[in-house]
Design brief:
eight-stranded mixed beta sheet, 25 strands
């Protein structure tokens, strides 16, 4: 195999998922080959050497393999972002209606009949909604960009044997020789061919906080489950913790593991549950419009004989069916949600993500730093019998404190625990226990054998003022056992028999099963080679105990998991860490750890098998970025609304696959780029509030949609009956539009309405079927009382106002008759539409069990007052309204009371059948 042949087989410019999958598989195959090939073989395949590429080879390599750049989401120009703010299905409907209104009210109208009020009203609604959305999106984008961190821009590259020079990372090519030292960020995927005590952090790729050693020796097993487990490879984006090395570049840019994880950023995010719900509801309204518009037009034209007025009236009915304020109400609801979340230190990058967050029923999260504290602590220091023993801590402290290498997380944890607890050494002068600080002053370092991968242990020799020396060794338990001939049991030094060795190993395995990393500690008094320590001196030591380390769960994690479960959200852990560690942490915080799947298990399953497995599995360990994304994709395919929370490069693909990607401000750039929501505090408890906020936002949006669509749907039946039976229109086109406008203005307070606790207790998803069922159940109710109102107006109220029945009146009398009728239905419609807001905003008894917010009540009362007063004002006269006689008001009260009672009964029946109102 050669890299060049691999690139020929897999087209690097292909963007199809299948070909990207082939490319990823081929690239992994190449990296495994690079990890196990001998260096002469690899240098030959890459046409390079230990001295690096020649100058003329660099350009050729860059031309063939491409630049060392990964995919990034491109930011659209400002004009396109502004247009995107208006890209809403309901906006399209309103723009269509406005365009038709321009044709009928202006272009085809003549003289005094020309009127642009309808398209102007609709245009104002569209403009306000789009501008509000644009402003909020831009503010969120600016806030997210402000979190961008400085990244490594250069690396030391050796070419032509020049010893190494600083070179921009994007100029590095395959075949280059890179020098690494402490603090460097690995600039590409490297095969290490020379290393000294090289430890790197792969946390951004795997999520594991513990540094791993990389070495120049051949990888023993090229079929290791995870590429990151191959010790001879260092991966782009990793950070060098200590040591130094040289390596040859074997992959750059999009072909690195880092690049594979970020490849999804260049593509378009899939449709979320919110997007799908909005589109589905829009299609429902469009179908209703297309069905009703010709019916109303034909009935009105046939019965009245005025086809132009019939067309205008049918268009007004179409506007009436459309929730005109929905784009603005949705934007306002989401904007208010973003402001609320900002108070809790949450940045919303994509406004619609607020509702998507409220809809989730599954949260997939990484383990490290989210469920755990993202730090190593010394959990236990035990003697060989498994009892806490401060002597073990004392010896471990001497080893860690006097080692001269770069202190790793384990050394820091030991020193921190010793400083907090002290040691068991008794100070003869004062008769009290010696502190760690005093212990450090009493002893001094003499020599050490640094940790290396072959020995997997660290030995330190310390001495005191009396000239006595001690050698202390700590390391992997099996490696420490290998240099021990004795074991200390209950204060006695006993030979290390096979039986005792077995007991020690089993106790260590038991600790490991609890998710801990276990090290052994051994001692040796007066070592022979104290000043010139060699590996040969690591023998005939006495094993004294164990050290058990853990990345502990956060104190808030268990409470957060319970809170999420109480809100109907299941938590699943997708991690690159080991199965035992993940299972232990999950058990500690209350996540069912009975079933665990590893990356190897996931890879071996087909889609059907994985779909069955993810339903009953809460822990997925040792996953690659692609496997994380596949698990999320499978959950969404089963109908779940899924959020993914992570902060590493390995989480970016899964975040893009989810309905709502969540990251934190300290995450790597790629993770923040993929996220829809950024937390300024890495805490699941913040998510609980975010979910509640999302569900509150959804509840208020769906209130408006359901009550408006059902009310307008009922008005359409009322209009059809009136058009067929009345000798005049029940309302003119302008009157109908004005009614809708007043009602919509009263609904602008809906985003600030109170929401019942039951409405935020379970996941809420946009359900077009629910909107349709609600519309059918409640819409005709208002029509029943509209028709009763028609009868009362036509036979009682209007004859009293006009001085006789319709057929007995002259033209002037008939004008008064029609104006009174239209004013009466205008007021009755406003009353019932406002009342329905309070009736269906809660499953409880309105005004008693649940009260609307003060702004909503105030605007509703104002709307009713305006409607009642309008007929007696000059504006009412201009709109052809006439004043209503006293007989109308008792009839109105009866109709409103009857409607309220019937609506309450219908609400109870609807809840029994459908489980919830909203």
């Amino acid at each position: 195999m050669t890299m060049r042949n691999l690139f020929v087989r897999v087209d690097k410019n292909s963007q199809s998922p299948a070909r990207r999958g082939n490319q990823a598989a081929g690239q992994q195959q190449w990296l495994r080959h690079a990890a196990t090939a001998t260096m002469p073989e690899l240098f030959r395949e890459l046409n390079s050497s230990e001295e690096g590429l020649a100058a003329e080879q660099v350009d050729a390599a860059r031309e063939f393999y491409g630049a060392n750049a990964v995919a990034q989401a491109t930011k659209r120009p400002l004009p396109l972002r502004l247009l995107a703010a208006f890209a809403d299905p309901f906006t399209y409907i309103l723009v269509f209606i406005a365009a038709v209104s321009v044709l009928t009210d202006w272009i085809f109208a003549t003289g005094a009949d020309r009127d642009l009020s309808t398209p102007l009203i609709i245009g104002t609604m569209v403009l306000v909604s789009g501008v509000l959305r644009f402003i909020q999106d831009e503010k969120s984008t600016v806030a997210a960009e402000a979190l961008a961190e400085m990244v490594e821009s250069c690396a030391e590259v050796e070419r032509d044997g020049d010893g190494g020079n600083e070179t921009p990372i994007d100029e590095i090519v395959i075949g280059d020789v890179v020098h690494l030292s402490s603090g460097d960020v690995v600039p590409a995927d490297l095969r290490i061919f020379s290393a000294r005590d090289l430890f790197v952090s792969q946390a951004s790729l795997t999520g594991e906080s513990e540094p791993v050693e990389k070495r120049a020796s051949l990888a023993a097993d090229a079929s290791a489950p995870a590429l990151t487990d191959l010790g001879s490879l260092a991966f782009m984006g990793s950070t060098v913790i200590s040591g130094n090395a040289r390596g040859i570049v074997v992959a750059t840019g999009a072909r690195t593991m880092f690049g594979e994880a970020t490849d999804t950023l260049a593509g378009r995010k899939h449709e979320t549950s919110f997007d799908a719900g909005i589109k589905s509801t829009s299609r429902l309204l469009m179908r209703l419009m297309l069905a009703m518009l010709p019916v109303v037009f034909v009935v009105s034209g046939a019965t009245k004989g005025d086809w132009v007025s019939a067309l205008l009236f049918s268009l007004s009915v179409a506007v009436g069916l459309t929730p005109e304020m929905l784009p603005m109400l949705v934007t306002t609801c989401l904007g208010k949600g973003a402001v609320d979340l900002a108070r809790h230190h949450v940045i919303v990058k994509r406004l619609d993500a607020i509702q998507d967050l409220g809809a989730i029923d599954v949260l997939c999260t990484d383990k490290t730093g989210t469920l755990t504290e993202d730090r190593i602590v010394l959990e236990r220091h035990l003697d060989v019998n498994g009892r806490e023993d401060a002597r073990v801590l004392r010896y471990a402290f001497l080893n860690s404190y006097f080692s001269t290498g770069v202190k790793n997380l384990i050394d820091n944890a030991i020193v921190e625990r010793a400083l907090a607890e002290g040691t068991d050494e008794v100070n003869a002068t004062v008769g009290s226990t010696t502190t760690a600080e005093e212990l450090a002053e009493r002893y001094h370092g003499i020599d050490e054998l640094p940790f290396d991968f072959e020995r997997r242990r660290l030995s330190v020799v310390v001495g005191d003022a009396a000239g006595h020396t001690r050698m202390v060794t700590k390391g992997a338990l099996e490696e420490v056992l290998a240099v021990c001939s004795s074991v200390e049991v209950d204060g006695q030094v006993l030979p290390l028999t096979d039986e005792l060795r077995t007991q020690v190993v089993r106790r260590g395995e038991a600790l490991a099963d609890e998710g801990m990393r276990v090290l052994g500690v051994a001692r040796k008094n007066e070592p022979a080679g104290a000043a010139t320590l060699t590996v040969a001196d690591e023998r005939n030591m006495v094993l004294i105990g164990y050290l058990a380390f853990l990345d502990p769960p956060k104190e808030s994690s268990a409470a957060a998991i319970r809170a999420l479960a109480a809100h109907g959200v299941a938590t699943k852990v997708l991690t690159g860490d080991s199965p035992r560690v993940a299972a232990h942490v999950c058990r500690a915080i209350g996540i069912d750890a009975e079933h665990v799947l590893t990356g190897v298990d996931v890879e071996a399953m087909n889609d059907g098998e994985l779909a069955d497995a993810v339903q009953c599995t809460n822990i997925f360990a040792k996953l690659s970025p692609a496997q994380k994304a596949r698990v999320v994709r499978t959950l969404r395919g089963l109908g779940h609304a899924v959020a993914y929370m992570g902060d590493g490069v390995n989480d970016a693909a899964a975040m893009r696959e989810s309905d709502c990607g969540i990251s934190v401000d300290s995450a790597v750039d790629v993770a923040r780029e993929a996220a829809d929501i950024i937390l300024l505090e890495k805490d699941l408890m913040v998510l609980e509030h975010g979910i509640e906020c999302g569900r509150t936002t959804y509840a208020n949006m769906i209130k408006y949609v359901k009550m408006t669509v059902s009310s307008n749907f009922g008005n359409i039946f009322s209009v059809l009956v009136a058009a067929a039976l009345l000798p005049f229109l029940p309302m003119t086109a302008v009157q109908l539009l004005l009614l809708n406008l007043i009602y919509d203005l009263t609904c602008t307070a809906v985003p600030w309405d109170n929401v019942d606790e039951a409405s935020v207790r379970t996941p809420r998803r946009w359900d077009t079927g629910s909107v349709r069922r609600f519309m059918v159940a409640f819409g005709p109710l208002s029509s029943v009382f509209d028709i009763l109102t028609y009868a009362a107006l036509f036979f009682i109220v209007c004859p009293a106002a006009a001085g006789g029945a319709w057929g007995t009146l002259d033209a002037a009398g008939q004008a008064v008759f029609a104006g009174t009728f239209q004013a009466g239905w205008f007021i009755e419609s406003m009353w019932t539409q406002t009342l329905v807001v309070h009736l269906i905003r809660t499953e409880k008894v309105p005004f008693v069990g649940s009260r609307a917010s003060l702004p909503l009540c105030a605007l509703g009362a104002t709307g009713i007052a305006v409607a009642c007063v309008l007929p007696v004002t000059p504006l009412g006269a201009a709109l052809d309204f006439c004043a209503l006689p006293a007989t109308f008001w008792p009839i109105l009260a009866t109709m409103v009371a009857g409607y309220a009672a019937l609506a309450m009964l219908a609400k109870r029946r609807y809840v029994r059948r459908n489980g919830s109102l909203l």
